């Protein structure tokens, strides 16, 4: 029967499309089911990340940063600009063009690798059968030896701030503002809230970010998050910690936000409000009741360390399973599963999944932070190097922030690399490569780093772990 596949993947986001391509490369007959429809009414591959997440938000972050720099950062270089303006529709058009380029790229990769692309909503039935419902409601059943569930996630809604057509929006709506809001509210000071808040702040909006927790960027290293809070405040973002939104009221295209914080009950009005309180697995109508796959009350599918579910031959990856909701984590899980189906013994190192916040300065980290290691009772040595002492960063007028390397005090093994500053994501990735091979701080310190580069800040931070930094005074050993 022609509708029988070795592998059927449900979902063509960073977890699903990568799994499908890798499975096909390994000689497995593979199909991928995707229901997402783009702005042109046609199927669009790439999932949230490519269509309304990572890629379009980076496009807007870069456009808005260039505008901000031209407005506030060129004079120091002796460049004068007058009568600067921003054409928001043109900025959005560029973003949409980039999205289309990459979604089309995934379609081409499916073709090149022999992946069968199936349009429609995929649902797992008993016995590894997949029911596909197309846009007209017509259903077909396809059979598979193996099924990979890669259904992704969606933004969390909150009752105090129900979404509207154009005043209260989620992260998707925040990518589509046709003009710069005079006043913008953001609920949630996580990655998405900070990135989207940054875009519109740079373009001139007054931005207030409401964060229910008393701690800012709780997952980051405390030293880095303190520096970040200071920097964002300096950039003009008002970040209100311990501020719990209790209600919203829209009148004449203005939204009044009611919230409580340390000063009691308060209200503020905005032209637009972005709800960015996190994401949840998108697993509604994904599993038939007799499919045998287990998930918890939040819709998270239970899997083991190798992404296998409770049903042999059925796997789940990405935002639908435990762990950080990150595109790169989803992709690597997709590769791991495809290779395990093909009989390889591939495993994934979950201890070294980097995290990045694409604000300016960038914030990134890999491994453990100082407070985690303190809680675990691990004795550590810490090396910190500021970009203010890095020639390349200063020459580029981008010298805020620091690199922090944390190493085990007994073995000198690097346990964490944390960066806020220029190229943070790339520097952390250098750290991750070293850590994957069990690097010591001394190893990093003995390597030759080209000069002048921002990478030298990682080199110096590694040297500083053992009090050997050259271009900054070393901390006296207690």
Overview of this structure, please?
With 478 residues, the protein is of the alpha/beta class. Helix content is 29%, strand content 25%. Strands 1, 2, 3, 4, 5, 6 and 17 form a 7-stranded mixed β-sheet that branches. A 5-stranded parallel β-sheet has the order 8-15-9-10-11. Helix 5 links the parallel strand 9 and strand 10. Helix 3 runs antiparallel to helix 4 and helix 3 runs parallel beside helix 5.
Key features?
478 residues; alpha/beta; FAD/NAD(P)-binding domain; Enolase-like, domain 1; 3 domains; 7-stranded mixed sheet; 5-stranded parallel sheet; 12 helices; 22 strands; 29% helix; 25% strand; globular
Question: Quick recap of the structure?
Answer:
Belongs to the class-I pyridine nucleotide-disulfide oxidoreductase family. This protein has helices at residues 16-25, 47-52, 54-72, 88-113, 191-202, 222-234, 327-341, 370-375, 391-395, 424-436, 441-446, 456-465; strands at 4-10, 30-34, 116-119, 121-124, 129-133, 139-149, 153-155, 168-169, 183-187, 206-211, 237-241, 244-251, 254-261, 264-270, 272-275, 279-281, 314-316, 355-357, 362-367, 380-386, 402-408, 414-421.
Name of the CATH architecture of the largest domain: 3-Layer(bba) Sandwich
Low-confidence stretches: none
Enumerate how many helices there are, as a single number. 12
Shape: globular
CATH class of the largest domain: Alpha Beta
- Specify the biggest β-sheet: 7 strands, mixed
Tell me the radius of gyration: 24 Å
Helix content: 25-40%
CATH superfamily of the largest domain: FAD/NAD(P)-binding domain
- Using DSSP, what is the number of strands? 22
Query: How much of the polypeptide forms β-strand, as a percent range?
Result: 25-35%
Q: What separation lies between the terminal Cα atoms?
A: 73 Å
* Class based on secondary structure composition and strand pairing: alpha/beta
Let me know the average pLDDT. 97
Quickly count the domains.
3
User: CATH fold name of the largest domain, please?
Assistant: FAD/NAD(P)-binding domain
